[in-house]
Amino acid sequence: MPEKIIEFNNVSKKYGRQPALSNINLTLPRGKIIGLVGPNGSGKSTILKLIAGLVHPSSGSVKVNGREANRRIASEVSYLSELDVLYSFYTVAETISFNAGQFADFDINKAQEMVSFMQLDPNMKVKNLSKGNRGRLKIILSLARRAPLILMDEPLSGLDPLVRDSIIQSLISYLDLKQQTLIMTTHEVAEVEPLLDTAVAVKNGQIRNISEIDDIRSQQGQSLIDWMKQHLL
Ligand SMILES: Nc1ncnc2c1ncn2[C@@H]1O[C@H](COP(=O)(O)OP(=O)(O)OP(=O)(O)O)[C@@H](O)[C@H]1O
């Protein structure tokens, strides 16, 4: 298995004429929690979608575990979309059974454990869940998979501070970093800072900097927000 789980080589991505990423080179280690940070429209979600094989590079190559990223790697990648992708007519329990049927690596016991950890009612219909509880359910579906790579696009967006805190706790408790790597995009920088191993600063479709959080703190004496200001303003 290659030491690096992700390799971008000279990757550019355009949507029509709109450039989203310009000539990116990026390698990311396995077994870490990695945060993609940067302003709106900088290209963070596009990086995740390229890794998930949901969009294709206009030029260059994206490799996951040494293999070209495409839709066939869906079985190795658990992708949490920014969009609300749950079926409103299912209950929480039915949503879990449905996902267990979709993915061979889905651990239904782990999902049920997380439902009680997050105090969700298994019999409640998705359409009646609060936004915070829908956010929790999406995290459960994503973390219940034994996929080596978990991608989360804005898992904390629009959620109140207590829900964000409970989601961060569940990430710490239920992620298996011996087997898994988590890459997330987020604007909730201060909250995720204690969780992250590595930060990647993205702006205008380019990688501006990559740093270990420990180095940002100990060598550079900065918080993640200070570091972002230094590299993104
Ligand atoms: N499907 C699409 N069609 C056209 N343009 C797109 C599409 N998706 C993204 N873009 C454009 O590509 C650029 C990068 O967008 P992307 O969503 O990757 O940024 P982001 O950093 O995730 O933004 P945000 O923080 O606002 O979610 C933006 O200019 C965006 O408008």
TrEMBL record:
TM segments?
A: none
The entry's keywords: ATP-binding, Nucleotide-binding
User: What are the boundaries of the signal sequence?
Assistant: none
Q: Does the entry feature the keyword Nucleotide-binding, yes or no?
A: yes
- Name the Gene3D superfamilies for this protein: P-loop containing nucleotide triphosphate hydrolases
- In terms of superkingdom, the source organism counts as Bacteria
Q: Which GO terms describe its molecular function?
A: ATP binding; ATP hydrolysis activity
User: Which stretches make up the ABC transporter domain?
Assistant: 6-229
PANTHER family attached here?
ABC TRANSPORTER, ATP-BINDING PROTEIN (PTHR43158:SF1), SKFA PEPTIDE EXPORT ATP-BINDING PROTEIN SKFE (PTHR43158)
What is the name listed in the Swiss-Prot or TrEMBL entry for this protein? ABC transporter related
Q: Which organism is it from?
A: Desulfofarcimen acetoxidans (strain ATCC 49208 / DSM 771 / KCTC 5769 / VKM B-1644 / 5575)
